[in-house]
């Protein structure tokens, strides 16, 4: 009964001022909604990648591959007959060409057919949309079906091979990832699946396999070791099947992005709650003092406010979470379309919703602790004296300035913590920035708004801390997003440079058979080709991180005379070191994932069994956006046990492009060519996702500025309500409603403008720090994202204007006589 | 000339309705100095606020120099107020963030009529109210009596034709009060200013030409200073 009463009183208290209640609630709702949507995006993205990974791995534990294109089935009889093996899947890859009516080039028509002995195998999870896996016809992804305009039962013909009916159409899966239009087909082959027997019939590769995947019982590890032993001196080797989404996608950064946005939103709405509770406490100090003089304990005063906060938070969560789920869904749609995969996703919302509710209730409580503490401290005497507490003492400002300036030193320290330090420094220094902006814009404001303008400038200093915090929050939002957008904007260029520098040539051609000397001579005879270099890539090779996690990568053979595959100042020395003992250089991403130090040893499952290699150094490389390592050619051939090379790196003469050459190559080598990739393709596929991300960032920029503007509206409303009596007085003294409105709008404009200016400045500082950091040196250039700055300026100023318009309406409606009563 | 006809004012708060003014008729000539006295809560401040156009009556009319306040728009009333009316509030109502000079200059700023000449006038006023030294001090740091004197200077700064004063000497000692009342009277004489002053103080009321005794929302009695026993009469009334 008493508790019920408390909740009722709290409800009456928080809703006493409708507009304030509404704005604060809106801030909390949006904050919680953003947090919810980011948590959902995080979990769902994770699920999506896990799902596709799982589909790729299916139930397979190991696979037997070869360093040649195919091997004889006889080699793996020991696998097929082992009692430890519970299921096997035999596969053969063959490059072919669609036979089509249209005028598509050979290159565009190229398709890789994978023949499998059982389409229904549990080692191969195919997400069928239409038809069935009958082991008689073709399995094609839906994008291919759409592009070729084929349905289940239709016939597809392959040049020089044969024809077959489509028996099933499947959703996107990594195994059958195909381009969805002819333009995309220029750069990427189609992939489809056929019955193994059929493919063998067509090709005459009767006893051949590309790989065998198998599932084992608990004897698997033993079998793996014995197979490693057995295959030591053959051209086949055994590897565990490894799933790792970061192997080919740099999505780690994506998660950071989610948390950054969620943190930022939480921070802003926390500030809004803080503001509301703080003013409400200040307003009711007298009430609390009276409560205490009647013998109420501090605890009961604190509890009263706490209940108010919780009430507000619960309402906020109840409305914000559903909005967040919807927002998360929209976000996922946009995000996945950015990645250009035709991925399907199911929203993972249960855990995120729970987390969001907990956060949503906790963070308002945390942010209101200070006002609650303050309310508890309410002393009868102080309140009656109405001491002027809003103006912090000079020494506190000096401390603030010194600390803020001191933290700026972090701008010169290359460490992730520097970012936090700089943001803290911005918040600390903001009162001074606000005063500066105030001084600069005062004459302009006076020009446009007359005396209201100068009053606005004067009022701004009245609640300096609060106004500065409001601006600072807008600034932090803008700064962080500007940094993100600058990074994303300049990253493509960084990637492009890196890829061009370490690709090793202009084109990479892959064959299903080893390149003969005639082939090489024929290539060199092309007008366009300046140089041809063989490239040896051992893949897939599994290795272990320091923590014993299994990962998978490619190892490239390098030598002094060969193409440049990585960026390193002392290349000469590195090559020499590599030739001494069998040792390895790790690409940056692999090195980070590995977790060890230079000089330590890395475990690798080589074709000759499990071995350890000394990690000589870390190198920068684009190859090929995943984990990668480099070894000396000689050691790769011998100790490591990888003998063959199916790739060639072509360097073009000036004036020729890879695009032109590509079609010719397909014509001339159609019988064994399996892939032609230009350096431009690689650049495009790496950077296209980033370009799409930029739009997402712009949306985020506007959303965050919007949320921060709710903070501005909140602050201005607080300022207005606190000054009711003053505003009444100036109205009584002859200022018109219009003039009062202008005054409040002027205040909002100054806060917004300071926020935008501060945000741009701090964004630049952050960007400078980033561009100077060793990690990203040369990758992120110090480039000012002008478009986004203009957007921030327009959005920041116009949303602040809107925010101030809300409180200016309130201010102009203040009744003169009742406000005179309060004074 | 101020003409008040059948003025009524009620405040409505939720269900409750407080009838404060119950039909006030009053005429004040140009240049006249009138004091209003009456018990607390009788509606004196309310009447003054209506006269100053700070609020609108529920019924009745107020004409100031033939201008009917009720017929004006909100904006016209505001501009009228800042041009022709000076107001001294019962609780001063200084703007805490402005300094003393800025507070006094405020009504001039409102319509952008602050000139060098006016600025000299502000300094004179400051001197007259005895706050010459305090011009740059922030208003919320002054004592109650000092604040009251700033409020008076502020009300006089635009040499209004009508001065409405709500207890202008309530917080001053006898000497200071006499000085201030002298100042107001001087303005009354020199500028032919009409003054309506609410006060509890018989001594202060003694400066007025006429004393209006107010009670329960209506005018109870009007006495002229020329009446011989006015002081005694008033004392009885107030008791
Ligand atoms: N805005 C308002 N809302 C409701 N009632 C009001 C309002 N303003 C005044 N009153 C009521 O009107 C009555 C007259 O108030 P007013 O301030 O005019 O009295 P007063 O004669 O000036 O008293 P005092 O001598 O104490 O200053 C009082 O009963 C008061 O409670
Ligand atoms: Mg009064």
TrEMBL record, chain B:
Pfam families: ABC_tran (PF00005)
Domain ABC transporter: 2-235
Gene Ontology CC: one annotated term: membrane protein complex
Entry keyword DNA-binding: no
Keywords: ATP-binding, Lipoprotein, Nucleotide-binding, Transport
Gene3D superfamilies: P-loop containing nucleotide triphosphate hydrolases
GO molecular function terms attached to this record: ATP binding; ATP hydrolysis activity; transmembrane transporter activity
InterPro entries linked to this entry: AAA+_ATPase, ABC_transporter-like_ATP-bd, ABC_transporter-like_CS, MacB-like_ATP-bd, P-loop_NTPase
Superkingdom, taxonomy of origin: Bacteria
PANTHER family per UniProt: ALPHA-D-RIBOSE 1-METHYLPHOSPHONATE 5-TRIPHOSPHATE SYNTHASE SUBUNIT PHNL, LIPOPROTEIN-RELEASING SYSTEM ATP-BINDING PROTEIN LOLD
Record family assignment: Belongs to the ABC transporter superfamily.
UniProt name for this protein: ABC-type lipoprotein export system ATPase subunit
Organism: Oceanobacillus polygoni
